[in-house]
C-alpha cells in the first residue's frame, strides 16, 4: 500500500516561492491502477518524483507498507520502476540491449536473469529489430519502447509512469495499454499520468485530479460519474478544474 499523507513541496526560485504541491493526500492499494490527472504545471510530475524518492517533500510523508520512503530510500528503490516522459535516461552511444543490461546490473540482476528479462521485454515491445542498434539513431517511439523496458527491467512491484504513451504509434500505445492490464493481473501497483482521457477510463479504477498543486478529486471513477451525473471525463475534468474543489 502507498500512502501519501499531507505532502507539500515548495521550490525557491531566486526570491520567488513556488508551491508545487499543497497538502496532497491519497492511498493506493496493492494491485490498483491509479490515474493522475491535471493540466501542465499542475504538479503531477513533482508528485511522482516525490513518490519515487527523487525529491523529498517539504512537509508530509509518503509510505510504502508503513515504511517512510524518504527515511529508508534504498529499501524501497528496488521495488519501484519509474518512467518520466520528459527524460530519456538512455545512453546514445550504447545499443538498446547494452542500455538495458546496464540498468539490469544497477538492480543487481544476474547475467542469466538480465539476458532472459531483456529478451522477454524485447519480444513484448517489438524491439528485436533494433535491440542491437545504437540508441542515437532511434525515433522517439523506439526510444520510448526502450525506456519502458528499462522501467520494467527489474520486475518492480510499484510502477510510476509520467505520460507513458507519449511518442508511441497507435499499435505500440495499444500494446502498452494491454501491458498495463497484464501488470495489474500480476498484482503490480501502478500510478500513471496521462492527458488521454480514454486511456484513463479504460485502465484506471480510481483517479487523483490535481489543480495548481491541490487535489480536486480523489476516488473511484464510478463515484465521480455519479457525482457529476456524466461519464464524459473530458467535461468532468474541465468542470472540476474550474470549480477547484474536492467537494
From TrEMBL:
PROSITE patterns assigned: ABC_TRANSPORTER_1, ABC_TRANSPORTER_2
Coiled-coil residue windows: none
GO terms assigned for molecular function: ATP binding
Keyword Nucleotide-binding listed: yes
Superkingdom, taxonomy of origin: Bacteria
Annotated ranges, domain ABC transporter: 2-237
Keyword list, A-Z: ATP-binding, Nucleotide-binding, Transport
UniProt KW Transport keyword: yes
Family statement: Belongs to the ABC transporter superfamily.
Protein name in UniProt: Sodium ABC transporter ATP-binding protein NatA
Species of the source: Bacillus carboniphilus
Encoding gene, per UniProt annotation: natA
